[in-house]
């Protein structure tokens, strides 16, 4: 474990508000408290077999926060590797405080690493690049959306960009019957046309839009 000799930090578990109650308590912790041993109580009583209870708590909370129906993550098929997590770009629509949920999940993942706990949910490869600040590549797009990956590759073979009338925008579907809307890939993108000279900038902007 990653307790480091500090006194245990208590987490009061309420089954009826498992995710929200856990988030509230974990996000109030200091960094040293996150690294300390956690002691769980259920109904005011300290849980017997604390390590087993902690493992079950981790599993239940992660299942809840990663459930695609909850609106924070999408499950994307990745070949023979099964389903992998990708942030739902509309998470802020369902959850105005969605960033606190992602921060919470980051703390849980860090805690799992400290205690050598396995997390059953896998993220898309580019999500791990986000965690360490690495640059994206078009290969990351291929894993998420092969259609856009082909489009990006084909742009290198376009002889005349004027005929494309392509600017630095993308049209996205708005969920819940909201139709479509145009999104600028860079500030002023609606007035910025794609040319041979700025093609790399366009591809980078499109890649970042698709992956972040």
TrEMBL record:
InterPro entries: E3_ubiq-protein_ligase, HECT_dom, Hect_E3_ubiquitin_ligase. Its EC number is 2.3.2.26. It holds the Pfam family HECT. Residues 23-212 form the HECT domain. Gene3D superfamilies: Hect, E3 ligase catalytic domain (3.30.2160.10), Hect, E3 ligase catalytic domains (3.90.1750.10). Pathway: Protein modification; protein ubiquitination. GO terms for biological process: protein ubiquitination; ubiquitin-dependent protein catabolic process. It catalyses: S-ubiquitinyl-[E2 ubiquitin-conjugating enzyme]-L-cysteine + [acceptor protein]-L-lysine = [E2 ubiquitin-conjugating enzyme]-L-cysteine + N(6)-ubiquitinyl-[acceptor protein]-L-lysine. GO terms for molecular function: ubiquitin protein ligase activity. Keywords: Transferase, Ubl conjugation pathway. One of its GO terms (cellular component) is cytoplasm. SMART domains: HECTc. It comes from the Eukaryota. This is HECT-type E3 ubiquitin transferase. It comes from Trieres chinensis (Marine centric diatom). The lineage of its organism: Eukaryota, Sar, Stramenopiles, Ochrophyta, Bacillariophyta.
């Amino acid at each position: 474990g990653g307790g480091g000799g500090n006194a245990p930090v208590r987490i009061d578990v309420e089954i009826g508000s498992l995710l929200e109650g856990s988030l509230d308590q974990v996000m109030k912790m200091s960094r040293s408290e996150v690294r300390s041993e956690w002691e769980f109580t259920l109904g005011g009583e300290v849980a017997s077999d604390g390590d087993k209870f902690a493992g079950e708590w981790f599993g239940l909370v992660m299942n809840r926060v990663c459930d695609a129906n909850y609106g924070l993550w999408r499950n994307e098929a990745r070949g023979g590797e099964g389903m992998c997590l990708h942030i739902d770009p509309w998470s802020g629509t369902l959850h105005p405080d969605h960033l606190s949920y992602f921060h919470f999940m980051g703390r849980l993942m860090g805690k799992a690493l400290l205690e050598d706990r396995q997390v059953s949910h896998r993220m898309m490869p580019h999500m791990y690049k986000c965690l360490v600040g690495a640059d994206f590549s078009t290969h990351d797009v291929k894993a998420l959306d092969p259609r856009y990956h082909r489009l990006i590759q084909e742009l290198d073979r376009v002889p005349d960009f004027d005929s494309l009338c392509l600017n630095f925008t993308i049209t996205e579907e708005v969920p819940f019957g909201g139709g479509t809307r145009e999104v600028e890939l860079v500030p002023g993108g609606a007035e910025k046309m794609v040319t041979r000279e700025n093609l790399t900038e366009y591809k980078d902007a499109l890649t970042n839009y698709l992956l972040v």
